[in-house]
């Protein structure tokens, strides 16, 4: 194959032989380019990993939280900042989602007025199980500066169950990120507790069987 000598236009010229395709992987040299780091599991226990299904599911759930994207008041500005490039919640596997049908985390960011109560309950009921709720800021936690107001709900936990409370008026993005990390820890601990409960129930069943015998 020859290349036209015209510096402006480079047109390949074939010598009559059909072009041959280079097979995938041909010319690969080990150790060059980007390589994955050595796995900790292979160093500790090569090619073996045992876990309960609940623990594996919890690992996937806590690493891929989809938050329902809506804001009620000034706390929503801090929530947006937490998702923006400076803090980048996406590095924790947290992404926003505009529909409750696929979201699994509701971040209540702002004042919950009584007019919004039914809408928040409806959005929560439309979310699939398992689902979690983060109350962000003083207003969502206990009413905040509008405590005992005629139009404000004294905490979103009067409407739906809350897993993590993030205090502040408004809390900084770092506080929300810490609340998300606490939620991830809660998801992992809940899976471990279910495993321990199953083991305890199994041991009690064996003891009852021994006593009956």
How would you concisely characterize the structure shown here?
The protein is an alpha/beta fold. It is built from 6 helices and 7 strands, in the order E-E-H-H-E-H-E-E-H-E-H-E-H. The model has no long low-confidence stretch (mean pLDDT 79).
Write up this protein:
This protein is an alpha/beta fold. It has 6 helices and 7 strands. Helix 5 links the parallel strand 6 and strand 7.
Keywords:
alpha/beta, 6 helices, 38% helix
Mean pLDDT: 79
Helix content: 25-40%
Total helical elements:
6
Question: What is the straight-line distance between the termini?
Answer: 88 Å
Q: Please state roughly what percent of the residues sit in beta strands, choosing from under 5%, 5-15%, 15-25%, 25-35%, 35-45% or over 45%.
A: 5-15%
H/E series? EEHHEHEEHEHEH
Largest sheet: 5 strands, parallel
Poorly predicted runs are none
Tell me how many strands there are: 7
Within the largest sheet, what's the order of strands?
4-3-5-6-7
| Structural class category | alpha/beta
Determine the oligomeric state from the structure.
Answer: single chain
| Rg, nearest Å | 27 Å
Overall, the morphology is: elongated
Explain the layout of strands and helices:
Layout: E1 2-3, E2 12-13, H1 40-44, H2 53-62, E3 66-68, H3 75-83, E4 95-97, E5 105-109, H4 114-126, E6 132-136, H5 138-142, E7 164-166, H6 173-212
Parallel strand pairs: 3-4, 3-5, 5-6, 6-7
Antiparallel strand pairs: 1-2
Helix pairs in contact: 2-6, 3-6
